[in-house]
């Protein structure tokens, strides 16, 4: 029973693949082409296609239909005689293309998210081996970005390696590494150019990071461990002293323990 059902499903799939491969299709596209965000150079294009063959096209700049084979040409000729239709298509440049493109520019193209930029030393040189710096920009949109290393405000191009990555959530990150031998008084910075900035952003080395909390805790635990050790050692000593020498020594050592605890 189960296997018969599976067979049925398989057959249906195979039949649909065959019928699609043997099928014919006709389609039209409507496109708005523009090269500048002020939309002064907009072209309204309609294409007419059969299978993958485009047989006729309307281009608003040309102002009429143009066929690319005999069928397309005769159809274009007939449509071009309809001046009202041509007039309406001309109006569609504004009504359809300009209007929609304006919305699309502001809702898609103009959306930007500023990167978070960090410049860090990832390997300290020793005068002979180079110091390695990393300039990273995180979580920006759109992906077009330019990172430039500056040495005393002059661009550096040699010994630079850059890697761009997509976060996978519309945001992007980029990392640029610079190897150089530091000279005293020299100023290194990383210039970031991105659509989200009015002007390039120039970042110097990140300030040294505050000690992470986990390390502070480790030091505190270490220090208190040392204290406990001293106290334990001292109390071991008291016990020993009491047993061997008596009351006077006990008082003396109690005072010492008190001091250790105050530290
Ligand atoms: C529309 O026509 C103009 C004028 O011939 C041409 O410059 C332009 O490239 C055409 N646009 C498209 C998208 O084909
Ligand atoms: C553009 O679109 C808006 C909103 O859909 C509409 O109100 C407006 O009339 C349109 N403009 C033109 C020129 O058609």
Can you tell me about this structure?
This protein has 5 helices and 12 strands. The protein has 263 residues and is an alpha+beta fold. It folds into 2 domains: 4-109, Class II Histocompatibility Antigen, M Beta Chain, Chain B, domain 1; 116-203, Immunoglobulins (Immunoglobulin-like). Residues 94-95, 99 line the site of one 2-acetamido-2-deoxy-beta-D-glucopyranose.
Query: What does the radius of gyration come to?
Result: 38 Å
Number of domains: 2
CATH superfamily assignment of the largest domain? Answer: Class II Histocompatibility Antigen, M Beta Chain, Chain B, domain 1
Largest sheet: 4 strands, antiparallel
Uncertain spans: 1-19, 237-242, 244-263
Report mean pLDDT, rounded to a whole number: 80
Biggest sheet strand order reads 1-2-3-4
Order of helices and strands: HEEEEHHEEEEEEEEHH
Helical element count?
5
| CATH architect. name of the largest domain | Roll
> What fraction strand?
25-35%
What spatial form do the alpha-carbon principal axes imply?
elongated
CATH class of the largest domain: Alpha Beta
Q: N-to-C terminal Cα separation, in Å?
A: 83 Å
- Bound ions, cofactors and other small molecules, one mention each: 2-acetamido-2-deoxy-beta-D-glucopyranose
Helix content: 40-55%
Oligomerization state: single chain
Number of strands: 12
């Amino acid at each position: 029973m189960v296997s018969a059902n599976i067979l049925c499903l398989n057959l249906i799939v195979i039949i649909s693949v065959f019928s699609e491969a043997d099928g014919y299709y006709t389609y039209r596209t409507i496109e708005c082409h523009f090269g500048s965000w002020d939309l002064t150079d907009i072209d309204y294009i309609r294409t007419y296609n059969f299978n993958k063959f485009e047989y006729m096209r309307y281009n608003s700049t040309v102002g009429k239909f143009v066929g690319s084979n005999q069928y397309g040409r005769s159809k274009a000729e007939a449509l071009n005689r309809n001046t009202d239709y041509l007039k309406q298509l001309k109006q569609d440049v504004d009504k359809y293309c300009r209007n929609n493109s304006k919305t699309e520019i502001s809702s898609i193209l103009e959306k930007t998210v500023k990167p978070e930029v960090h410049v860090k030393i990832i390997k300290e040189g020793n005068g002979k081996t180079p110091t390695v710096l990393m300039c990273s920009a995180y979580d920006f949109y759109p992906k077009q970005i330019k990172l430039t290393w500056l040495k005393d405000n002059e661009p550096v191009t040699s010994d630079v390696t850059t890697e761009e990555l997509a976060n996978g959530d519309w945001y992007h990150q980029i990392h640029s590494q610079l190897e150089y031998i530091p000279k005293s008084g020299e100023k290194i910075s990383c210039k970031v150019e991105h659509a989200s900035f009015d002007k390039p952003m120039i970042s110097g080395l990140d300030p040294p990071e505050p000690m992470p909390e986990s390390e502070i805790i480790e030091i505190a635990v270490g220090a208190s461990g040392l204290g406990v050790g001293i106290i334990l050692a001292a109390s071991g000593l008291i016990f020993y002293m009491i047993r061997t020498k008596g009351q006077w020594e006990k008082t003396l050592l109690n005072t010492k323990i008190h001091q250790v605890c105050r530290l």
